[in-house]
Structure formats: structure tokens, C-alpha cells
Amino acid sequence: MDQFGLPTSGLFEQYTFNANSASSGGNWHTWTKPLGKSMASIVLIGAGGGGGTGAIGSNSTAAGGGGGGSGGMTILEIPLFFLPPRLYISVGQGKSGIAINSLNTYVSTQPNTVANHVLAIANSGGAGGNASGATAGAAGTGATGALVSSMPLGWAWSKATLGGQGGIVGGATVAGAALSVPISGLRVMGGTGGGGLPAAATTGTAGGLISPVGSPSYFLGSVGGVGPTTATVPAGLGVTGTTVPETGFFYYGGTGGSSTHGSATGTGLVQAAGGNGGIGSGGGGMGGALTGSTAAVVALGGPGLVVITCY
């Protein structure tokens, strides 16, 4: 079986379109309808939101950033008779600090995002919130599911229009919270938040993790950044979103970075970034850090994706 459940056979053709646009509809791939086929299965994934920044400050007042929300998914099963000779595809790139629906993924009958031309759309997720002092960064919002008004040409053949999974809020003075694998039908995830800076002379708090599914399982989870136990050890980075290939495809979000040690000094004064999100998934939030720490780079949300299978 292939990754979308179609029998392995020379009778079908598959086309994959990766991220090509830094804004909704900014750039377009071109797809030409093949000869000798009668149906098309079209899967769209919206880009994930980036992780939020963690604060740098004094003990117990440097919270972690929030995890980004995932993009949505849209699936169509449509006779090729109803498609024009060419389709145009714009796939949102993952990046930081994006607002919800700013990097949507489109399949359109013209190289634009005018609703009357749109065959299918998958919206993008929201960025995780930035921490401010002792206030943790908010969770990024999951993408809204596609509506008939945003994809009127393909709505009659839509099999699923799924909203995204939200991220997780950062920790204030504690570890970032865990995130569970979604059971909504999504194959992408939000990101987790960064750990918040604790009191002086205290082990750094961990970034939020992705919980494993009960054993035996292909969903092994993903750890957050590990908090340093000594003052001169840098904070632990979040983990970049991984793929679960045994499921056909499934993408994890990035996990949150840990906070620095409560009495960080020297080489320990380095803020921890969250992990970048996998395809369509949210980035992890940045950990909080003690005054004097070198600032981390914000984690990216994962890029969108479009796969067209004709048979």
C-alpha cells in the first residue's frame, strides 16, 4: 500500500509539491492533468506556526515561549473530468512569527487565491506566543478547517477538511506541558512550550514533550529540552519534529527548549531554542533564561505539502 491507501500499481501516478511560497499565493507550481487516468486524490497540508520566544530575566521572571499550532488538512477525491488541463499549487513555507491563515496552501484553477478559482485550501497554524517576564507565551492556535466559501470548486468532492491542533503554552517557572498525539484524523501536530526559569540554585526546567502512545506503538513520543543540573551546562534544545514512517506519514511538532539553570554562569548562559516543526506542524517554544544569556533563534513551523495521486 502507498502512503494514502491506494494499491501499489503501475496504474497510478503520484505528484508531490513541496513548499514554494513565503506568503499565501506568493508562488505557484504547475500541474498538468495526465492522460489515461480517471480520478485524482488530492491531499493538502497547511504550514505550521513557529514557536514563541522565551524571556531573559531574573529568577522566576523569565517564562518559556508557547508552541506553534499545526496547519489543517484537506482531502479531495475528484473525477479528472471535472478538472481543467492544468492546476496551480501554492504551498506555504514554515517560518517563525506567522499569524494564523497567513501561509495557506492552495490548489487552484488559476495562479491566484480568488475563491471562485480555488479547488482546495488547507489553512496554516498560528505562531506560539512570546513570553513576557513571568508570563508564559500562549499556545499557538491550530488552523481553522476549510469552508465551502474558501474552496467552492472542490467542496462537492471533499472527503475531509480538518482543523489543526493547537500548540502548548510555555512554562512560567516550571516545565512546559506535554502534548498528546491527535485523534481527530490529523497527521500533523502542534508544538510544545519552553520551560520557565526557576529559582536560584535550581535545576533548569524541561521543555514540553510529546507523550508516547501506550506500548506497543509506533508513536514513541518526543522529549523536550532537558534542564541543566549544573550552572555551567547550557540549556537543552528542543527536538525537531520527526516523521513516523510506519504510519504511511505522520509528522510531529517541535518540542520546547529547557530553561537555563537557576544560577547559570559562564558557558551555561545560553538560551535554548525550541525544535522546528515537521511538515505542517508547530515549532517548539524557546526556554526562559537567566539575565546575561545569549538569545536563541526562534523555531520554525513546518512547511505545507500537497500530494496528487491519479488513477
Descriptive report:
The chain has 311 residues and is mostly beta strands. It has no helices and eleven strands. The protein has strands spanning 13-18, 29-32, 39-45, 56-57, 73-79, 86-90, 105-108, 118-122, 158-162, 289-290, 305-310. The protein has a five-stranded antiparallel β-sheet, with no helix packed on it.
List strands and helices in order, with pairings.
Elements lengths: L12 E6 L10 E4 L6 E7 L10 E2 L15 E7 L6 E5 L14 E4 L9 E5 L35 E5 L126 E2 L14 E6 L1
Parallel strand pairs: 4-10
Antiparallel strand pairs: 1-11, 2-6, 3-5, 3-11, 5-9, 6-7, 7-8
Compute the number of strand runs.
11
Q: Helical percent range? A: under 10%
Separation of the first and last Cα atoms: 14 Å
Strand content is 15-25%
| Outline type | elongated
Structure classification:
mainly beta
**How are the strands of the biggest sheet laid out side by side?**
1-11-3-5-9
Cα radius of gyration in angstroms: 21 Å
Mean pLDDT: 94
pLDDT under 50 segments (min length 5)? none
Mind describing the biggest β-sheet?
A: 5 strands, antiparallel
Number of helices: 0
What is the N-to-C succession of helices and strands? EEEEEEEEEEE
